[in-house]
Amino acid sequence: MKLKFQLFSTDGTYFEKSVEKVIVKTSNGEICILPNHAKYLSDLIEGKIKVDGTTIYTDSGFVSVKDNEVKVFVGMAYSLDELKISDIDEKINELLSIPDEKKTPYIKKKLEFLKRLKEKI
Description:
Elements: E1 3-9, E2 14-19, E3 22-26, E4 29-33, E5 40-44, E6 47-51, E7 54-58, E8 61-66, E9 69-74, E10 77-79, H1 85-96, H2 105-120
Parallel strand pairs: 1-9
Antiparallel strand pairs: 1-2, 3-4, 3-6, 5-8, 6-7, 7-10, 8-9
Helix pairs in contact: 1-2
């Protein structure tokens, strides 16, 4: 039996996969979710989510587990397996090129998140 894993982010990232286990970081520590896990709802803190062989770096959000479905809702998410430092640098430079008076709180938050993400790679 497998889990149906879905990740949704407000910046448009969507990831869906049938998996054997999911490891997430909550404010109470790391949680490993396996098939037939009890219903569960928790906050997520910024960090790595491990989905079988895939590692995804996310900001904060929450995770829901019910009936062998794991749903993760976050603001931003990047697969570390596919991401290169040059990609991050490009995104950072793009955001830095926006005039300060036009930088929304979301843009500022994304810029800081990308800087932290770059340190994790």
